[in-house]
Amino acid sequence: MRKMLLLATTALAFGFGTTAGQAADLKACWVYIGPVGDFGWTYQHDQGRLDVVEHFGDKVETAFVENVPEGPDAERAIERLARDGCGIIFTTSFGYMDPTLTVAEKYPDVKFEHATGYKTAANVATYNSKFHEGRYIIGQIAAKVSQTGSAGYIASFPIPEVVSGINAFLLGAQSVNPDFKVKVVWVSSWFDPGKEADAAKAIFDQGADIITQHTDSTAPLQVAQERGFKGFGQASDMIAFAPTSQLTSIIDDWGPYYIHRVQAVLDGTWTSGQTWDGLKEGHVVMAPYTNLPEDVAAAAKELEGKIASGEFHPFTGPILDQAGVEKVAAGAVLADGDILGMNWYVKGIDDQLPQ
Amino acid sequence: MRIELIRRAEQSRRMALLSPVIAVGLTVVFSAAVFLISGVDPLAGLYQLFIAPLTDAWSLSELVVKAVPLVLIGVGLAVCYLSNNWNIGAEGQFTIGAITGSMIPLLLPDFQTPFTLPLMLVAGILGGAAYGLIPGLLKTRFGANEILTSLMLVYVATLFLDWLVRGPWRDPMGYGFPQTERFNSAARMIMLGDGRMSVSALVTLVVVALMAVMLAKTLKGFEIKVLGASPRAGAFAGFSAKKMTLFAFAISGGLAGLAGIMEVSGVIGKLQPSISPGYGFAAIIVAFLGRLNPVGILIAGLVLALTYLGGEGIQVALGVSKRMSTVLQGVLLFFVLACDTLILYRVRFISSSRKAGAHA
């Protein structure tokens, strides 16, 4: 029995130690915070990976690890991929920042790309998208559609990306209705369909009639659909989950970026840097404007065009903070760095940021 | 045919040794079937799951890194469970230990001496023990159910950590992101080799040895087991169940706290909202898988760590879902616990024809 086991293990070791490493020129790998089936953040990153597969065919092999928590396990998952022969590794959550840098230091020949962080190195680049551009558009739509003048906003964590999204949403709404209210509910998770749904129910019970979210599941929109209210999709086009409720969705399209960066590694032209693109470059895409009066949809399309062309910037002054202090002077535009580190609310938000 | 379980007169020693082997065997067969159904080469799957993590130095050291907190917390919990105290809150004691230990580098950043790390470890132990004593005291003073209180205190601890890293302890240079500054080098664990394995592995081995001796060879160990088996008998022997409750909670809280601060000063290097992927809960499984015996717990911790690493391996190498590894992990635990039945019971197969005959 023992001998057989030994034989079996040796056979296994030889048989499968060699199957890895086929003819592909490059192995591109991803680390995901959620399940690939979240239909939100991680799903869209995986769609980007599949775009890479489709674009490069046999030239590029891909692999991923999903559901990796932002604790001690992250570093192991990243290092495993680096050891497994990945030439470029995309780590797709903020909490992977330090682990990514630690592993990158040990593997100088591997290229690392960290989404949503701010630390770089010779072989670590960062990338993110200007989601606030889309948030301004949906804010404006919300103010036009809402009967009660009040929207709910389901938020994950009070990090700058989320805060700037809430601000952009309200600024968009205020451009239509200066008294528009937004209720922020923090669920302290990126993906928790149960909690997100409960938050959505609470928001509707409190009199809001439109909902938006900075979390990754389809649950809030499904609640809106059930109750006959309106809402916006997040990260992916969620129209299938809310056919008569979704007005539009802010879609993250990572495919072009991933293809571009993988190509750069293949060409030997990859360099570190910080990429922050939006509607203009097609990294942020608005889903079709549905369930809307024609004039509202047309206005939204026009605004989208203006933001994409650079004619209009969502953070154009005058912008006051909650205390009434002027943060952006009339006519001025907030600098990118200030948006990326935003930790204050604009006037009119009915919530306190944890300080 | 019918299968009957017949209670053995005494526990089978042969089965005590054989049942884990049977369990692993059944898991292998079941896993192979799952792989086959999902269109994955079962041999490749089994290799990635159970053997690949053992084939190189890096994954072996990662195995140790993953097992350390599970084993440390597990041996502490064993003292609780053997003495009939149901501490479910190790995750919270782990978190508080990490916080109290981190106070030294975060509040006294200029205190960088060879004593910094040892003092942090002591602070972590004391913090975890104090937090563990809360449900202990609530039980001895007010008769509150320790399962509920210790579990609820987990949420208090993790939310407290969350508040700290978003509020008073947030790194002022961190763009508002929820994390503390990185610890200075005097506050980091001493590494063994160039991987992530640190002296925490040695500390764990020492703790396992000490606990094994205490449970097997000392009066205290006898007291723990007697009070667990029969509080009345213990009382006749002059042992105090109340003191034992406090002792058990202090030991397991302290060890969980030690695991917490070693994890934070070792592999993470700062405080952040999430510092544990549920070690405090997984360690409950480890404690029982190891039959509440320190050496058994050491082995069980390594086995559970192996399934985590193997689970990642099958994702990367074979492109299967993480859910698959979770299922197989559950299956392993199920078979181990189910096979324990064989220690207490004998299986008898009764053919239906004979049964029919008997009734005729």
Output the number of helix runs of chain B.
15
For the record, the count of structural domains of chain A works out to 2
Radius of gyration of chain B: 23 Å
Largest interface: A-B, 45 and 44 residues
Percent of residues of chain B in beta strands?
A: under 5%
Counting DSSP E segments of at least 2 residues, the number of strands of chain B comes to 2
Helix content of chain B: over 70%
Give the structural class of chain B.
Answer: mainly alpha
Describe the protein in words:
- The complex is a heterodimer of chains A (about 350) and B (about 350).
- Chain A has helices at about 1-15, 40-55, 70-85, 95-105, 130-145, 160-175, 195-205, 220-225, 255-265, 295-310, 335-340; strands at about 25-30, 60-65, 90, 110-115, 125-130, 150-155, 180-185, 210-215, 230-235, 245-250, 275, 285, 320, 325-330.
- With about 350 residues, chain A is of the alpha/beta class.
- Chain A is built from eleven helices and 14 strands.
- Chain A has two domains: about 25-130 and about 255-275, Rossmann fold (3-Layer(aba) Sandwich); about 130-250 and about 285-340, Response regulator (Rossmann fold).
- In chain A, strands 2-1-3-4-5-11 form a six-stranded parallel sheet, with helices on both faces.
- Residues about 1-20 of chain A have low confidence and may be disordered.
- Chain B is mainly alpha-helical and about 350 residues long.
- Chain B is built from 15 helices and two strands.
- Chain B has a two-stranded antiparallel ribbon.
- Chain B folds into two domains: about 1-40 and about 320-360, no CATH class; about 65-320, ABC transporter involved in vitamin B12 uptake, BtuC (Orthogonal Bundle).
- Chain B has helices at about 15-35, 40-50, 55-80, 90-105, 115-140, 145-165, 200-215, 220-230, 230-235, 240-270, 280-290, 295-320, 320-340, 340-345, 350-360; strands at about 1-5, 345-350.
- The radius of gyration of chain B is 23 Å and the shape is globular.
- Helix content of chain B is about 70%, strand content about 5%.
- Classes of the chains: A alpha/beta (about 350), B mainly alpha (about 350).
- The interface of A and B includes residues 17, 20, 65, 342 and 354 of A.
